[in-house]
Design goal:
By secondary structure, the protein is of the alpha+beta class. It has helices spanning 2-17, 63-70, 80-89, 114-126, 132-149, 153-165, 179-183, 187-197, 213-224, 271-283, 289-297, 328-345, 349-362, 370-382, 389-398, 402-412; strands spanning 23-27, 30-36, 42-50, 92-98, 102-110, 203-209, 244-249, 254-262, 304-310, 315-324, 419-424. α2 packs across α8 and α10 (271-283) crosses α16 (402-412).
Length: 427
């Protein structure tokens, strides 16, 4: 009960200030952001290595995802069972996730077990064993997962969309790879890419929790201090994104449709204007125009959505829906109609105010735990948003007026630049 009261007070303070008093620290050349919070006996770490599945070599797609899936399956000191037992007995949570342009990790440990926890994390990060029996076990798991994906129409649609929409870019590669490509990956490949991806030049770290500056400096040096400092290749902008429509014929009563449109990068000055426009168009759930017009008024779909994917190097807007085969084309025309309406008329003052209120209010969700705070500190560093981002964010949103947002819409939204990938049997 006391912990609950402390958490409520903690959250209320952030609801008022909407800011975090963090410190920028350095541990043996490693820069990281840190918030000391002794209210709950938990230490949370969020870290990112730039470079993900888009760096997989040709013919060995899925390599980096396989590598990250194996890292807690065995180290030079512990086997898989021992790692799981150590995590359980010391209150440790650990996760690695591969994306197209990054590898993200989270780590949590009960503060009283910090020494055991960070020692285990150091083992996992620095000394994965990649034993052949573990490789074969995880390969079999991934191949089963891929086969399941290939029987799900939504997953098929998203996979095919990436292949076609990003055909001139490495983002076209599937994160899991294919059954055939996974078979080609060797132990030497895994060891080589472990050294390539896990390096300090591409590392971003956020920490929050019940630990002192001195201790966290020591532990981060143990965990990350021995990694190499190689530099990864910069990601290229998306070029010649397709437009129009393409159909992948599959016998199914409903078609799954994914659509895409050019977007903007996370560091673009119009980023929040773009987010607000998307919220009004398709990102606001029941309040969005696409949902109201296509779901509520016409009943063509059960749900419909859009969302921006803003990376460091570039961005796109993605959306999707499922509908009956005989209503695919009319639904696509309605999406284009709403897109065109926004491109020509922009949004209203009421829509702007509602979207601004949502984005200002939703930011406090990042303060609900030490892990969410650590992740936020990591994200701000990753996108180089600035040390004063917490103070500036509300100000940036407040300064967005209707003229500015609509100017961005007129310059960036164009229904003729939409691309639709249909998986099913549209009539």
């Amino acid at each position: 009960m006391q912990i609950f009261r402390t958490l409520i007070i903690f959250l209320m303070s952030f609801n008022i200030a909407q800011s975090i008093n963090f410190k920028e620290l350095n541990s043996g050349g490693l820069n990281f952001w840190f918030v000391e919070d002794n209210s709950i006996p938990i230490i949370s770490l969020s870290f990112t290595f730039e470079g993900g599945s888009s760096l997989d070599p040709n013919g060995k797609e899925g390599l980096i995802n396989l590598m990250t899936s194996l890292m807690d399956e065995g180290t030079n000191k512990y086997d898989s069972k021992e790692i799981k037992q150590l995590m359980k007995s010391n209150g440790i949570k650990f996760n690695l996730k591969t994306s197209k342009n990054r590898v993200d990790g989270t780590f949590q440990v009960i503060s009283s077990q910090r020494n055991e926890g960070f020692k285990l994390l150091a083992e996992i990060i620095n000394e994965p064993s990649f034993k052949n029996d573990e490789i074969e076990k995880v390969k079999a798991q991934l191949k089963s997962s891929i086969k399941i994906d290939n029987s799900d129409i939504s997953t098929i649609a998203n996979k095919k969309f990436d292949e076609i929409f990003f055909k001139n870019h490495n983002f076209s590669r599937n994160i899991k790879g294919t059954v055939k490509s996974i078979e080609k990956i060797s132990r030497e490949d895994l060891k080589k890419f472990h050294k390539k991806i896990f390096n300090t030049n591409s590392l971003y770290i956020g920490v929050a929790g019940d630990i002192s500056e001195k201790e966290i400096n020591k532990y981060l040096s143990i965990v990350f201090g021995s990694l190499s400092s190689s530099k990864l290749t910069n990601f290229q902008k998306f070029k010649k994104l397709p437009i129009g429509k393409k159909v992948e014929n599959i016998e199914t009563p409903q078609s799954s449709v994914v659509f895409g449109h050019p977007g903007i990068s996370r560091n673009n000055k119009d980023y929040f204007s773009f987010r607000i426009a998307n919220y009004v168009l398709g990102g606001g759930g029941f309040q969005s125009r696409l949902y109201k017009e296509i779901r509520e008024k016409k009943g063509l779909v059960y749900s419909i959505y859009s969302y921006p994917m803003s990376y460091k190097h570039d961005g796109v807007m993605i959306g999707g829906f499922q509908t009956q085969n005989d209503t695919v084309n009319i639904t696509i025309e309605n999406v284009k109609k709403e897109w065109s309406k926004m491109a020509k008329r922009g949004i209203s003052k009421k829509e702007l105010d509602e979207a601004k209120a949502y984005y200002k209010g939703s930011f406090t969700r990042n303060f609900t735990s030490t892990l969410s705070i650590a992740s936020l500190l990591n994200t701000i560093q990753f996108y180089n948003l600035g040390k004063d981002y917490f103070d500036r964010r509300d100000e940036i949103i407040d300064k967005l007026n209707l003229k500015k947002v609509n100017k961005m819409i007129f310059e960036n939204f164009d229904s003729e630049k939409l691309f639709f990938l249909v998986v099913g049997k549209p009539k």
